[in-house]
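Q: Got a minute? One more chain.
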Amino acid sequence: MTELVSLLSGIDFNGQFGLWMFLSIGAVALFAVFIPLVTFVESRRREREAFYKAETLRRIAEATGDGARAALELLREEERLKAAKRIEGLKIGGLVNTGIGVSLLIFLRVMLGGGAGSPFLCALIPLFIGLALLTYALFLAPRSDRDRGN
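A: Always. Here it is, folded:
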């Protein structure tokens, strides 16, 4: 069997056909079965969470006059937490990109040396991306989002 596949494909497997076949089947199984299954399960979970949340809010709002106020306050709190999480994500992303840029700048400068035209200047790309993210998160984000994020 190995000789036939080697003859037809022009690839010499040198006794590694079993490993090659295992990896091929594993890759097909991963992309054809596992990833769509995980995506389906995740979408169902989100759908259930949204349904239960809407049902709970509806029942709270219908319960009493104070229930409607409590439901609105719950919605406001969720929006506040979502905005805070987004701003914190921008801050973390900016710090990570800035750290990568600085460390890459130092690493390439030491490894390659050189003058103004050296390739170490490509490290300025992640550095400036990180600084832009930090600038937005700290100074330019809408005022209500920044206040919520702190």
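A: Residues 68 and 111 are 64 Å apart (CA to CA).
Q: Perfect, thanks.
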